[in-house]
Write a structure and sequence with these properties.
The complex is a heterodimer of chains A (about 325) and B (about 375). Chain A is an alpha/beta fold and about 325 residues long. In chain A, about 35% of the residues lie in helices and about 10% in strands. In chain A, a hairpin with a 4-residue loop joins β6 and β7. The termini of chain A are far apart. Classes of the chains: A alpha/beta (about 325), B alpha/beta (about 375).
């Protein structure tokens, strides 16, 4: 049913369908999406090409995937990349040792091998494993799960791709392209995607560039820090609107905080600029850390920024704002 | 606009971007087509945005895209239904049109000259006037920096420099040997382990610093960093030393050339398996052909060759600039390569002891 209608991301979490997939995120994501980003996401959904998001840390690259998955009611599979990650880890893992272990324990207990019951519920933790069936020992990774879905596409988040090994992006490409399938050597299965997954890849350009063939396949969007009081205000509003249990900070405090924050941000000379998430933390601290919210007038005339440990994460930056300038 | 034809505009943008050095293939073109058919290019602005997302993969490419797109639009404006195609128009009319154009596009008057320049390539078949020359200055490729080799390709290159020997920890399970042993014995006793492989290659990097090499410090620094931290070489197997112009009796341990060390001491750590890579412009940057430099370099190279035969020279200057300078002569003494992707990979082939036969220079 979903496959026939065209999926569109609008940035409005209330459009979530009635019966979302069980792996879909359960909490709405307070995410303010710009028109350009919205378009990039929709293009990626339409063309089913991976969307590569670049930008500084803390600008909301990772959050986008859950916002998309929540709104469309699609399952979200997150794949955090580490320096040792191989492309195959995202497809499946095969636990040969467990199989060996099961063979031995079954020999001891003299259990007759259970009758073959070919259940298709692959995700569930298996209790009755049968060593005679190699399928019981494979476990799908984020991409593998997405390929397995029969009724709808999944959103796959590949987080911080530049952490991985040099060959990783190229290996990944062979899977994320026609014919959208991979083989499981141990069981001899070929998994073909019924629905091509919506892949969102984040990168913070820590190290050099990604290989050209990979870039050519991806859609590209650069996420800028929302360096604009209105946008920041919108983000704050949305944030508190969705987290209903918290009372929003008074508007004058928000305005002053935005003003001071942007002044620091735009002044330059920072080694590591704080991102949106740092700002939200800082605002929260200003608002609720003490029993009384921080006075807006006080914040405006304070020489020293309060709670600056939330904003500056490097010694030089910290020292720069430690002195009353 | 009634005359708006997204497929046509997209095709022309594709060709123009490719001419400007964008790495686009048929796959990208088809993807854009599909996007346009899917309604992602209902007007020019939307189409531009779509193509930008699809075809530009860095902020700098995105900023290159805008002027190219604008120039395409400019040239497509005369194709309004009431006007004839510009090719057939006499000069007078096209002049009038040029005056009109900026108004139509509501761009400020100072841009008028720019408009003229940009629209010119499309009007080039006019036989009346030769193309306005500044058009070449508008070519963005002229503004791009000299970027012969990326960090990524350095990391790739270093991967080939390896001499694996099994002397690591004894923890690699040899499945075949285990099975074989179990078959021979008739029962399984214990797994057979092998030693883990380690890269035993030893690299000696000699880098020319300061002077004419100053513009290339960025690349030499990348080269050192990638060799030490991002290659498969053991960090203690990479020795880096610096010199200025020609390595003399001593080289330096630091890049500020303050901690001298005797060249003899450095060479004593080398054996015939040591890979030696020299990075210097060999006088090609300034085009000098000084006899002292050649003589000093020659004696240094002969000294080097007594210790190892795996010597290569990377020259950050393009090959056509070597001619007539001392680099040309030095290139005959030692395999010298231009510092780009091919050059680095050739140089690494030499220093790992597997040179391609036809690339050998007579003296090595």
């Amino acid at each position: 049913m979903i496959s026939t209608q065209r999926l569109e991301f609008t940035g409005n979490p209330n459009r979530r369908p009635e019966n979302p997939h069980k792996d879909s995120p359960t909490n709405p994501e307070p995410y303010v999406v710009s028109a350009e980003l919205k378009k990039a996401v929709n293009l990626a959904i339409y063309l089913r090409r991976p969307l590569l998001l670049e930008g500084d840390a803390g600008c909301g690259k990772t959050r986008l995937a859950s916002a998309v998955a929540y709104e469309l009611g699609l399952p979200l599979y997150r794949w955090d990349i580490r320096s040792t990650t191989k492309a195959q880890d995202g497809l499946y893992e095969y636990d040969a040792i467990l199989r060996l272990h099961d063979v031995h324990t079954q020999k001891l207990e003299q259990q007759p091998p259970a009758a073959e019951a070919e259940t298709e519920e692959e995700d569930e933790e298996r209790v009755n494993r049968n060593p005679a069936n190699p399928k019981h020992y494979r476990k799908f990774g984020a991409l593998g799960k997405a390929f397995e879905l029969k009724n709808q596409p999944a959103v796959v988040l590949i987080d911080e791709i530049d952490k991985a090994d040099l060959d990783f992006p190229n290996d990944l490409l062979t899977v994320l392209d026609e014919p959208w399938e991979f083989k499981i050597k141990e069981t001899g299965e070929t998994i073909t995607a019924t629905h091509k997954p919506i892949v969102i890849i984040t990168s913070n350009k820590e190290k050099g560039n990604l290989p050209a063939p990979f870039l050519r396949r991806c859609l590209y969007h650069y996420l800028d820090f929302p360096n604009d009081p209105k946008r920041l205000q919108e983000i704050v509003e949305k944030h508190y609107q969705i987290r209903e249990e918290e009372s929003p900070p008074p508007p004058d405090l928000v305005n002053t905080a935005i003003k001071r924050f942007l002044a620091v941000w735009n002044e330059g000379g920072l080694f590591k600029k704080p991102g949106t998430s740092e700002f939200l933390d800082w605002l929260k601290a200003l608002h609720t850390f003490e029993s009384e919210p921080y006075k807006a007038a006080q914040l405006a005339k304070d020489k020293l920024l309060p709670y600056r440990e939330l904003l500056f994460k490097l010694q030089q930056d910290w020292k720069k704002y430690a002195k009353a300038s | 606009m009634s005359s708006f034809n997204p497929q046509d505009l997209m095709t022309r943008a594709f060709i123009r971007l490719r001419q400007s050095g964008f790495q686009l293939g048929v796959g990208e073109f088809l993807a854009a087509r599909q996007a346009v058919e899917g309604g992602f290019g209902e007007d020019e602005e939307a189409l531009a945005e779509t193509l930008k997302i699809l075809w530009c993969h860095s902020p700098s490419e995105q900023s290159q895209f805008d002027p190219i797109w604008e120039s395409l639009q400019m040239s497509s404006t005369p194709k309004n239904p009431e006007k004839k195609p510009p090719v057939k128009e006499p000069k007078l009319e096209s002049d009038q049109e040029r005056v009109e154009e900026p108004q139509k596009l509501s761009s400020p008057p100072p841009q008028e000259t720019v408009t003229e320049i940009k629209s010119k390539p499309e009007l080039a078949s006019l036989p009346i006037r030769a193309p306005f020359t500044p058009v070449e200055n508008q070519d963005t490729s002229a503004l791009q920096t000299y970027y012969p080799i990326s960090r990524r390709s350095m990391v790739y290159g270093w991967r080939y420099l390896r001499q694996p020997i099994a002397d690591g920890s004894l923890d690699v399970l040899d499945v075949n040997a285990t099975i074989e042993q179990a078959t021979r014995q008739g029962f399984y006793l214990a797994p057979v382990y092998r030693r883990r492989e380690r890269n035993n290659a030893h690299l000696l990097l000699l880098l020319d610093q300061n002077g004419s090499m100053t513009p290339f410090h960025r690349f030499t620094r990348d080269l050192v960093e990638t060799a030490i931290y991002e290659s498969s070489l053991q960090p203690d197997k990479v020795s880096v030393f610096y010199f200025h112009n020609v390595p003399a009796a001593s080289v330096y341990k630091d890049l500020y050339l303050t901690e001298p060390i005797k060249l003899q001491t450095v060479l004593e750590t080398c054996d015939n398996q040591t890979s030696i890579l020299i990075v210097s412009d060999a006088g090609a940057a300034r085009g000098y052909r000084k006899l002292e430099r050649i003589r000093a370099t020659t004696s240094f190279l002969f000294q080097l060759k007594r210790h190892s035969s795996l010597i290569a020279w990377l020259n950050p200057m393009p090959e056509e600039r070597w001619i007539g300078s001392s680099a040309e002569i030095i290139a005959n003494l030692v395999p010298m390569y231009q510092m780009d992707n091919n050059g680095l990979s050739n140089a690494i082939d030499i220093v790992r002891g597997q040179p391609l036969q036809h690339l050998n220079s007579p003296f090595s």
